[in-house]
Amino acid sequence: MNQYYFNSIEKWIEQYEERIIASVKRLVSINSVAEPESDVKPYGQGCRKVQSEFCQLAKDFGYTCTSYDDRVIRVDTRQSDANRRPDIGIWGHLDVVPAGHDWKYKPFAPVIDKGFLIGRGVRDDKGPAVAALYALKCLQDLRIEQKHHISLYLGLEEEKGMSDVLWLKEHDIPFPKMNLVLDSRYPVCYGEKGILSIVVGGRKPLCENVLSLSGGESENSVAGRARMEIRALSHAPIPEALPDWLAVTSGAGKIAVETQGLSKHAAHPENSENAIYRLFAAASGTLPGCESLHRCLADALAPGTIKLFRDFAQLSSNIYGEGLEIAAQDEISGKLTTVASLLSMEDRLCSVTFNIRYPIALGRHDPLISAITRTLQKHDMQLVRFSGKTPGYSPKDHPLLVNLMNTYNTFTGQSAHPFTIAGGTYARMLPNGFGYGFRLEPEPVTPAGMFPPGHGGAHAADEAVNVAHYKKQLALLILSLAECQKTKF
């Protein structure tokens, strides 16, 4: 590691700190959940606005910003580079997952409290996107030689399916030769599990006393809330002494049952609590402590509806695929995981969306679809639709990967190794694509009592990043981009 570069980088970051944080806040204040169904094509007004705001940040540095059909933007430090194929692409995204519920702070009014910057997107992925822009500025200001041209690419529909980058592929837009995706963690991610989204539906309609069913906020998050409304019968007693995650109210001729869970990213569902599972299990009487609710609903719900709820509870009860009978694992990427993420009812038919992350070694999702179909037949259910992304994998001995690992280990004093993840990033869709940052572990712990349990992470309520740690992550990124100029490829 060049110590002169490192000292210069740290000094530069201190000089630009206020401006960097202000830039992150400008982007986080925009609710940029992608809305493909919006009249403002392709992804809605929020994504259009955040794109414009980021391009203004780039133009303030004198950089060129190219928009590809308002789906992906490309930033180059020089106009003359805008039409050439970059050697290295840095990738991030400006869309975010929905805010969800139960925030202590406001999701789109970013603030700094106790040294933490809080707001939707500070971690995933607006904070890293701003870091990449300022990394290019630092390289330029410090006159670090760039043998390999670097461009910055930012998508606007990563969270809902990556149709943004797919559009580039379909329209033969050349990708950079090497690609770093700032949507993971340090050091280097060289592989990603396959992702499979399925919608499971009951074949028979629910009984007429079920008035509504809903749950979840995002396809790739564990459901944090679920709700059911039942037509009230005059003799049905309102249950008491229920678990604190279960609420039952009555009025206007109906009974409302609402469950709360602990939402986490579907790629990391360990220690989460699924509100959809809780709703089905509580209503069907399969959870201890909910017997009084089951008795309350027994007269209103037909036996076939109760059976369907019990079956859905069984399918969603385990995060390792045992309910769907698809448990699997490999040495490269670990266990398959599955979570119930969305619940809905249409034309009296109940459907649940499951998000599945499957091991790299499986290669494709066809065998899983066959196994799931067999399981659903046992429960008189059907596979309504499915979509997926095959696993991504790049060789561990790639010269760029080796360079990045050496820089990381020198910076941290560790002897770390590259890794694989369960998350889905642009890396799987790009040639020679690697996840690199932006999260650096271990992260500072929030002060006791600052957040409720489960808050503070990406996709969680009160998404937060420690400002001092963010600066350290940025320093590592800048140093890595400087060092990778030495790589021959």
From TrEMBL:
InterPro entries: ArgE/DapE_CS, Bact_exopeptidase_dim_dom, M20A_pepV-rel, Peptidase_M20, Peptidase_M20A. GO terms for biological process: L-arginine biosynthetic process; proteolysis. This is M20 family metallopeptidase. The keyword 4Fe-4S does not apply. Keywords: Dipeptidase, Hydrolase, Metal-binding, Metalloprotease, Protease, Zinc. Its cofactor is Zn(2+). The keyword Zinc applies. Belongs to the peptidase M20A family. GO terms for molecular function: acetylornithine deacetylase activity; dipeptidase activity; metallopeptidase activity; zinc ion binding. It comes from Pyramidobacter porci. Pfam families: Peptidase_M20. It comes from the Bacteria.
